[in-house]
Amino acid sequence: MAVGIFDSGLGGLTVLDAVTKRLPEVPFVYFGDNAHAPYGVRDAQNIYDLTTAAVSRLFDAGCDVVILACNTASAAALRRMQESWVPADKRVLGVFVPLIEALTERRWGDNSPPREVAVQHVALFATPATVRSRAFQRELAFRAIGVDVEAQACGGVVDAIEDGDMILAEALVRSHVDALTRKMPDPEAAILGCTHYPLMEETFQDALGPDVRVFSQANLVAESLADYLDRHPDKLGAGTESAFLTTGDPKRVSARATQFLRRPITFDAA
Fold first, then answer.
1. Does residue 194 carry a catalytic annotation?
2. Residue of 65, 161, 194, 220 marked active site
3. Residue 261: is its pLDDT beyond 90?
4. Which of 128, 34, 29 has its CA nearest to residue 72?
5. Of the residues 10, 70, 126, 192, which is catalytic?
6. Tens digits of residue pLDDT in 135-149
7. Selection from 158, 155, 209 nearest residue 185 by Cα
C-alpha cells in the first residue's frame, strides 16, 4: 500500500513530512534524484527522461500512485507522461493541482467555464524551467479569468538549500522578491512554486510583507492526497515498507535530509 514521492533533490521532503503526518498509516517511498539536481536548469526532454526513470523505479518498489513533489518535473514532464507513458493501472500526480484548487476555490474536476476569483494579482516564485514552461499560468487560465501572474525565476535558491547554505538562500530569496515587486508592486498572493521553498517560507513572507498571502504546497498536497486515496483506495500499491532512495551519495544525502526534517533519515542507493 505504498505511495511514491519523487523529487529532483531534497525539497520533496517538505511534502513527505506533511503527507506522513496526514496519513500516518501509509508507507511512503521517497526517491531523490540528487545526482542530477537541480532540474530547474535542464531542458524539457532531459527532465522528462530523468523523471520517467525515477517514477519507473518507484513503480518497481510497489507504488501505484506517485506524487511528483517537484514543480519543475510537474511543469515540464507530467502532462506528456500522463498522455503517453503512465500505465493504465498507475497514477502520477503533480503538485500544481492542489495549489490551483486553493487559489481558485474550485475542485479540479469542475469543468465549468473560467470565472473571476478573489485574488487578481499573483506572484509566482519558481525555478527557471518551471517559469519557462508557463504550466502554472496555463492551468490557471482553464479555471480563472482576469488573474495577473508575474513569475520570477529564482536562480540559485535550490542549489543553496541543497548545499545547506541557508544564509545564501535567504539573501537570494530577498533579491528575487525585490526583483518581482519592481514588476508587480502590490501582489495579493504569492505562490512558492518549488517544494524546496517552504524551507524559506518565513523569509518570503517577511520580504513580501504581512498583507501578501503566501501559498505553500506541502499541506495542500497532503490534503489532496488524502482525499484522492479516500476516493481511490484501489490505488494503494503493493509495497508495505517505507524507504528513502537516492541516485546521489547516500551518506551525504542522509546527513542533509536529517538536517531538513530534524529526525534521523537514512537513504539507500537507488
1. yes
2. 194
3. no
4. 128
5. 70
6. 888 888 888 898 999
7. 209
